Amino acid sequence: MNRHLQQALQKAYKIPIPDQQEKARFMRTLPRSRISTWQFILTQIAYFRKWTLVLSMLFLLPALLGARHIDPDTLWIISSLIPFLGLLAVAESTRSAVVGMQEFEMSTRFSLKSVILAKMSVLGILDILILCCLIPLCHVSSNISLLQTGLYLLAPYLLTVNISLCLTRRLHSGEAIYSCMFTAVLVSTGSWLLHLTADFIYQLSYLHWWILLSVFLTGRMMQEIYRTVRQTEEYV
Amino acid sequence: MELVIDRVSKQYKNRIAVDRISIKLRKGVYGLLGENGAGKTTLMRMICGILKPDSGTISFDGMDVGEEDYRAVLGYLPQDFGYYPEFTGQDFLLYMAALKGLSKPQAKQKAEKLLQLVSLQDAAAKKIKTYSGGMKQRLGIAQALLGQPDLLVLDEPTAGLDPKERVRFRNLIRDLGKECIVLLSTHIVSDIEHIADTVLIMKDGQLVYQDQWTDGRGSLEDFYLQHIGEDNKQKHTFS
Hints:
By secondary structure, chain A is an all-alpha fold.
């Protein structure tokens, strides 16, 4: 626009000072743009504790080293460490209750159940990806089939997640976290001791029992997730 | 703009916390008074969809309390609350904005304005664990205002604030009452006397008084003590 014309207009027309209350009233009438559920899930990733993600990724390190040096014990080391991966996922997903944020999270558009489901979904996918990397790495270093390797890693993970979810539902926040830690230590030690003292259960003849156990624990985990979500809010 | 609470009840084991409360709230500030255990917080938590009534319904402009759309117009400040320890004041507001469904640019803009409104702009980048009680309370008020709520439920909003801040927040709440429904509960009777258009008094889970309070009616504190009974009056006098 011509500069002179612009100045002339500025002189001729006095810009009114906006009335803040009128402005607020007007703003209230505008349609509110809102994020979609997918966008919400993605925003949740930004609020995960960094060390949860870093520690989860660190589980790949011993597997990588084991695969490189073809150490047959790698599978058993990873199998006894894997309960802690489950512990990390449960601890992060149920953190609202520990810090006392549920009251806020229950009254928002994406309520607590959405927060928990979003966290569980993201961490579940991350853990599946980690397991998908761990299984072939452990398979390379041990003399065991891919299916068996997968089952021996999956079972302690699922067992820890199942017990931890059950504990977080039944116990109060602080107690629940310590109980989950204890569970992870117990499953981890048990897994290692089983390998040392009852090696026969890892033979091919027991494979169907491992498959049954994994299917059962997966089913139970789904049930535990459902119960956990149901218990978080009265409106579910 | 109307919040309809229709014959709402809530029972905990043998104790009736809220007993068949019915009320319609329209634009304005409503001050909820009552002793500890009168059922104020239970009623507020039901209005916010945190607790489900055993019977009765709560709706805002036809939207049921369990619906997502209802929560989208709600702002809530709980009495006791925690926060993720690694959060800064700004992180907290952005996180709450995401839960309220605000887009990132909207959230950033709104968070900045609200931090200014509650005088926390200089502490926005500091971790909440370093905040004083009053600062945390101000941050709680700021999150309740995210997303331009039509229904604002504030449980003890002025608790922990210094006298100057309290007066400032009273004025803020009074202004908000011109645009939306504000329901606030407090033990500080003078707060309600100064800002509430309507006074609600709860006793033993029931709403025993609801009316407008005007300056010419004398002291609200005396009136309140009369309403909660002689036994309690003595309790209040001695405490």
